[in-house]
Amino acid sequence: MLGKIEHLGIAVKDLDAANQVYEKLLGSAAYKQEAVESEHVTTSFFKAGENKIELLAASNPESAIAKFIEKRGEGIHHVAFAVEDIVAELQRLEEEGFTILNKEPKRGADNKWVAFVHPKGTNGVLVELCQEIKE
């Protein structure tokens, strides 16, 4: 089952400029900035109470984030949900008829295994599943 909303992902053109905006908005600096080479993005994470905001900027013009911004502009890119067992959840969602974009989870930002559900089956919202990596 899907758990709490783990974070909201927001696509931005300029990570430094967006960091300044969110620092002012939230009243605190990002607690982590990280490059995710497999996705060709650089991310910043902010805490907003018990919630998290992930800013995503493309590090390659061919990345999914760059294409998203080109097509839709900056804004909410995805909603991420925490899960206890990402493999089981992917199987459950596929059995329910959702289109899974990653058949196997991959390492994402903030020490998480991640996989995505196609927005065509979720009313236009890209859904990310996140499971804490325990090593």
Automatic annotation (TrEMBL):
Family matches, as SUPFAM superfamilies: Glyoxalase/Bleomycin resistance protein/Dihydroxybiphenyl dioxygenase
Entry's family note: Belongs to the methylmalonyl-CoA epimerase family.
Pfam families: Glyoxalase_4 (PF13669)
VOC domain span: 4-132
Statement: the UniProt record of this protein carries the keyword Transmembrane helix: no
Keywords: Lyase, Metal-binding
Protein name: Lactoylglutathione lyase and related lyases
GO BP terms, alphabetized: L-methylmalonyl-CoA metabolic process
PANTHER family per the UniProt record, alphabetical: METHYLMALONYL-COA EPIMERASE, METHYLMALONYL-COA EPIMERASE, MITOCHONDRIAL
Gene3D superfamilies the UniProt entry points to: 2,3-Dihydroxybiphenyl 1,2-Dioxygenase, domain 1
